[in-house]
């Protein structure tokens, strides 16, 4: 019996890790497709984001149907809306960074600082206690981010801060989710995100200079369909991964998104990251894994 249980756990671990790696690969292709659409083909970042998430919403309709209207029952509608607004702003800043030529290797590495913003926000706004080891890991993670950002370099541009802002906004959205899940079901949190993200992106696109732009030509539409479908598949893959095993086990596999995005950036744009990327990324990944280790010891 114990051998059977052990075999089942091992199988679940392999399946969970595989789903996580697959999600990372899908997101990497999505990022390169969105960067090509905005930076090369000239579609505005706000419009590209709206069309991508509209396609993702259509692809996720079976999931929405499965959750059902029962998932809309809530006593915290305002917090749901605020959380989705933060997530949508994060997406907008992320795609704006890609559209303005921030190399994908730099953008994805800076985005990996998001968990450290969650640590800070959880301590100051949710009253969660963070150990000195976690604060040290957070500081090391931000040092890694600064090495990648390299604001002292002559080639530095302010648009490089856009992925950092996206990381801050997504970290804030995660804090709202943690607060919601104290009283709300995971189905409710998921349903509101799926239903509200596209309308919020529509409003942001309409308010942007030039308004909402219709894609021109089949190349744009094929790239948007690819990004929308892969984005939805990636989100579903993440859900499958977290269903199989705990988040702490999956963390190292999540970090594989960096080399996957570096590979896509090289294949699509011939970008070769400099040495400071790997030094900064090593600090961020090391700090993240150390934080997971500390949490496991304390639990």
UniProtKB/TrEMBL annotation:
Belongs to the drug/metabolite transporter (DMT) superfamily. 10 TMS drug/metabolite exporter (DME) (TC 2.A.7.3) family. Residues 15-149, 160-289 form the EamA domain. It comes from Pseudovibrio japonicus. Its main location: membrane. PANTHER family: ACYL-MALONYL CONDENSING ENZYME-RELATED (PTHR22911), SOLUTE CARRIER FAMILY 35 MEMBER G1 (PTHR22911:SF6). Keywords: Membrane, Transmembrane, Transmembrane helix. Pfam families: EamA. The keyword Transmembrane applies. It is found in: Membrane. The chain crosses the membrane at residues 12-30, 50-69, 81-98, 104-126, 135-152, 158-177, 189-208, 220-242. This is Membrane protein. It is a multi-pass membrane protein.
């Amino acid at each position: 019996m114990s051998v059977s249980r052990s075999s089942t756990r091992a199988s679940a671990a392999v399946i969970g890790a595989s789903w996580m790696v697959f999600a990372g690969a899908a997101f990497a292709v999505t990022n390169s497709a969105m960067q090509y659409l905005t930076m090369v083909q000239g579609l505005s970042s706000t419009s590209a984001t709206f069309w991508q998430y509209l396609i993702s919403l259509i692809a996720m309709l079976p999931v929405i149907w499965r959750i059902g209207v029962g998932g809309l029952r809530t006593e915290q509608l305002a917090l749901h809306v605020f959380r989705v607004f933060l997530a949508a702003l994060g997406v907008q800043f992320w795609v704006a960074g890609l559209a303005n030529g921030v190399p994908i290797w730099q953008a994805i590495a800076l985005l990996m600082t998001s968990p450290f913003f969650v640590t800070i926000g959880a301590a100051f706004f949710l009253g969660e206690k963070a150990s000195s080891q976690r604060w040290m890991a957070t500081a090391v993670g931000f040092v890694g981010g600064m090495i990648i950002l390299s604001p002292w370099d002559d080639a530095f541009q302010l648009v490089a801060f856009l992925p950092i802002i996206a990381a801050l906004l997504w970290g804030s959205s995660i804090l709202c989710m943690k607060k919601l899940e104290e009283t709300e079901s995971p189905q409710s949190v998921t349903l509101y995100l799926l239903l509200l993200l596209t309308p919020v992106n529509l409003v942001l696109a309409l308010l942007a200079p030039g308004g909402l732009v219709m894609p021109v030509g089949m190349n744009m539409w094929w790239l948007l369909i690819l990004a929308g479908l892969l984005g939805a598949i990636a989100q579903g893959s993440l859900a499958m991964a977290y269903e199989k095993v705990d988040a702490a086990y999956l963390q190292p596999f999540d970090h594989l998104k960096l080399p996957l995005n570096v590979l896509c950036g090289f294949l699509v744009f011939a970008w070769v990251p400099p040495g400071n990327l790997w030094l900064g990324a090593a600090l961020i990944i090391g700090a993240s894994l150390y934080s997971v280790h500390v949490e496991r010891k304390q639990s």
